[in-house]
Write a structure and sequence with these properties.
The complex is a heterodimer.
Chain A lengths: L3 E10 L2 E11 L4 E5 L6 H9 L6 E6 L2 E2 L10 E4 L11 H13 L2 H4 L9 H19 L15 H13 L5 E5 L7 H18 L2 E6 L2 H7 L2 E6 L2 E6 L1 H6 L4 H6 L6 E7 L4 E4 L2 E7 L5 E7 L4 E3 L8 E10 L4 E6 L7 E5 L12 E6 L5 E3 L5 E2 L1 E3 L1 H4 L3
Parallel strand pairs in A: 3-8, 3-9, 6-7, 7-8
Antiparallel strand pairs in A: 1-2, 1-4, 4-5, 9-10, 11-12, 11-14, 12-13, 13-22, 14-20, 15-19, 16-17, 16-19, 17-18, 20-21
Helix pairs in contact in A: 2-4, 2-5
Chain B lengths: L5 H27 L17 H8 L1 H33 L5 H13 L2 H11 L6 H8 L4 H8 L11 H7 L12 H26 L3 H10 L4 H12 L1 H16 L3 H6 L11 H11 L3 H28 L4
Classes of the chains: A alpha+beta, B mainly alpha.
Bound molecules: adenosine-5'-triphosphate (ATP) and magnesium ion.
Chain lengths: ~375, ~325
């Protein structure tokens, strides 16, 4: 178990900066997810923590001690790679033994053939076998021990890769998109298993993914990265409900948050898509703003309700548990998505004009620079109007 | 359903061409090897296994097998090891790798016959640059001391270099003791660049993540990572490189023809050269065919060994 801290870490490849000063404190025993779109520098950050890549500037420390100069193997971390990176010529058992063999046996005990003559080797190998046995029981891969990675399914390989990371009892696990090669249903299943494993091992997990659903379901905290910057760090609820940056708001949540252009007057009142929001900005910033509504924060209303947003239904997406209405409005590019319960949403057909109204207090307002602005809803009177 | 004969028309041309161009010559050679046929003669006699009997009893042919096998056993391991070593070094370079690749590959692209003439001049015992350089070291005490081993306290005259300085430097291609070694050296010089390129291609197909996994697992030294990742992952490349090198070494001909003509005293009398001498120069087609058939059997064995390894061991 370990805490990991990055302070002002930067990385550039030949003058091209890919990580611009990341500060990150990972607590002991937490499940932290680094999430962001492809190419934002997640893997690079993880590899810097692992020591496989050296940062251009900044410090990495593990459990309070600086590890900038420490070799990967001495950092006591284990990594699960996206491609699993199992040794294809070794059996599953040998794959699991390898990290222990390299750590516990000395040069002579590892020597091909002659190593078997070194007396101390036997006891150590017995110990190693025991640990491998234990891990393969935990992961239920005992029947696979004699096979080679080429003879395993994707999910089984994933388990073996996890096992190879687990045998050493590392201080923290680093995982780089370990589920992205699996099919959808297995991914959901492994999500639950990884969470359970984390609860059981109580070890620090640093998990990289570009899938915001994985991030939201498994993590204690989420770190959202974009273009080499760490934009927000917080619990899944906080990142979802309180995004501090418009890019975070758009990235987290599926379907995407609706962003509409709005206008703020001197008093902080905001108008957007033909109606005014029932609230004001704490600090008025007159000029154009962006207003974000999550699909579930828009509700369908009667045509003549005041303060409603009207648009033409272009597409009705029925997922069974939810129905998403895609509507377009003149002057707004893209479509606005509304989520509704299937029970109350039957009659509308594509082409119809649909009206909706935001759930009071839920709209998020962002300034022209993408930063979140403090929007206060008129909570007391909001419902009465 | 009517029986169509279309399938014969589809496979027919391919089978016909294969029979005509690949199988027939071998069958003809096999038949000829049982005769005493010479080109121009109107007839021939069936002499059964006589050619083969000669092949395995006469001294000049046992010299032929010795020369060919020695050549292969010298060239294959050394050129494969050098090819692997240089590929590893080049792939670890950050800059300049392309230059080294081009330089080492140069002998492969050059015509061996033209290069052989250059080597002939270089190795000339009197005016050749090789002996010139060696001779020039004799009166420089540092070089002399180092090469003759006298700096380690040995008697300089006991060593190869010391005694050569006293007497004379080898004739290389003209000396029975050195000729095959010299030919093999040229073969290695020529072949290792090719092996290097094959290994470089093999190295690029080793996933980088495997090295990183090895690093995380505690394979700290380059040697550990080589043992754990590089060597096993190059398995298919090893098999291919060794087979190709062996077959190419068995086929050595142009250097022998240009530099030694099989001599001195048949020390470089390799198989293809013998085939050429018997079958073409001396017009003993029967004998030449017998050597050809034995040669084909060698190559066939090598290929079967390769197929075995490809199927069994090295594919994961
Ligand atoms: N060795 C390298 N040389 C140059 N640029 C690199 C190198 N490795 C990564 N990059 C660049 O760094 C940026 C971040 O790469 P990184 O692999 O960290 O992305 P990522 O967030 O993991 O993306 P993905 O989700 O696609 O894996 C990318 O723009 C990439 O092009
Ligand atoms: Mg990545």
């Amino acid at each position: 178990m370990a805490s990991i801290a990055l302070s002002r870490v930067t990385k550039s490849y030949g003058g091209q900066s890919v990580i611009n000063g990341v500060d990150l404190d990972i607590h002991d025993g937490e499940f932290l997810t680094l999430v962001g779109p492809s190419g934002c520098g997640k893997s690079t950050t993880l590899r810097i923590i692992a020591g496989l890549e050296t940062q251009t500037a900044g410090d990495v420390s593990i459990d309070g001690s600086l590890v900038n100069e420490t070799r990967p193997s001495l950092r006591d971390l284990a990594m699960v790679f996206q491609s699993y990176a199992l040794y294809p010529h070794l059996t599953v058992r040998q794959n699991l033994i390898t990290p222990l063999r390299l750590r516990d046996l000395n040069f002579w005990e590892r020597f091909p053939l002659l190593g078997h003559l070194v007396p101390s080797r036997r006891a150590k190998m017995a110990q190693i076998e025991k640990e491998v046995q234990l891990v393969s029981e935990t992961l239920k891969i005992e029947p696979l021990l004699a096979r080679k990675p080429g003879q395993l399914s994707g999910g089984q390989r994933q388990r073996v890769a996890l096992g190879r990371a687990m045998v050493r009892n590392p201080a923290a696990f680093l995982m780089d998109e370990p589920l992205s090669n699996l099919d959808a249903s297995l991914r959901v299943h492994m999500r639950a298993e990884l969470s359970a494993l984390h609860k059981k091992l109580k070890t620090t997990f640093v998990y990289v993914t570009h899938d915001q659903a994985e991030a939201l379901t498994m993590s204690d905290r989420i770190a959202v990265m974009m273009d080499g910057d760490l934009l927000q760090l917080g619990s899944p609820e906080e990142v979802y409900q309180n995004p501090q940056d418009i890019r975070v708001a758009e990235f987290i949540g599926s379907p995407k948050m609706n962003i509409l252009p709005g206008y703020c007057d001197e008093l902080g009142n905001i108008t957007c898509a033909g109606f005014s929001l029932d609230g004001t900005l704490e600090i008025p910033s007159p000029g154009p703003v962006s207003v974000g509504f999550r699909p579930e924060h828009l509700t369908l209303t009667e045509p003549n309700a005041d303060q409603s947003l009207a648009g033409k239904l272009t597409y009705k997406e029925n997922l069974g548990s939810d129905v998403f209405f895609h509507i377009t409005q003149e002057g707004i590019e893209g479509s606005i998505i509304i989520r509704a319960q299937p029970l109350i949403s039957t009659p509308q057909q594509p082409g119809d004009i649909i009206h909706c109204t935001p759930v009071p207090g839920k709209p998020l307002v962002f300034g022209p620079d993408g930063q979140r602005l403090d929007f206060k809803a008129l909570a007391q009177s909001g419902t009465s109007s | 359903m009517g029986r169509s004969k279309a399938h014969y028309w589809f496979v027919g041309p391919a089978i016909l061409l294969m029979l005509l161009l690949l199988i027939a010559p071998v069958v003809v050679a096999a038949a000829l090897s049982m005769t005493d046929y010479s080109l121009g003669n109107s007839g021939f006699n069936w002499i059964g296994w006589e050619n083969y009997e000669k092949l395995f009893t006469r001294r000049s042919y046992s010299k032929m097998f010795t020369a060919s096998l020695t050549y292969v056993l010298l060239v294959v391991p050394i050129s494969v090891a050098l090819g692997l070593g240089s590929a590893l070094l080049i792939s670890s370079l950050r800059i300049g790798g392309e230059l080294y690749k081009a330089i080492f590959f140069l002998p492969v692209m050059a015509t061996l016959l033209a290069m052989a003439i250059v080597w002939e001049f270089a190795l000339n015992p009197i005016v050749g640059v090789v002996n010139d350089i060696l001779r020039s070291g004799c009166d420089k005490s540092v070089i002399y001391g180092f090469l003759s081993g006298s700096w380690l306290g040995y008697d300089p005259l006991e060593s190869w270099y010391g005694s050569a300085c006293e007497k004379k430097f080898p004739l290389w291609l003209g000396d029975r003791k050195y000729a095959l070694g010299t030919i093999a050296f040229i073969g290695i010089w020529q072949a290792f660049g090719f092996n290097m390129v094959l290994y470089l291609a093999g190295l690029t197909s080793v996933p980088r993540e495997l090295y990183q996994a090895a690093q995380m697992d505690g394979a700290d030294s380059a040697w550990e990572r080589f043992k754990l990742v590089t060597w096993p992952m190059l398995g298919p490349t090893h098999v291919f490189v060794i087979t190709i090198s062996s077959i190419r070494s068995f086929q050595v001909f142009d250097t022998v023809e240009a530099l030694t003509e099989g001599g001195p005293s048949k020390s470089t009398y390799v198989m293809i050269y013998a085939m050429f001498e018997k079958g073409v120069r001396q017009n003993l087609l029967g004998m030449g065919s017998a050597i050809t058939i034995v040669f084909l059997i060698f190559v066939l064995i090598l290929t079967l060994v390769q197929v075995y390894f490809v199927n069994r061991k090295v594919h994961y």
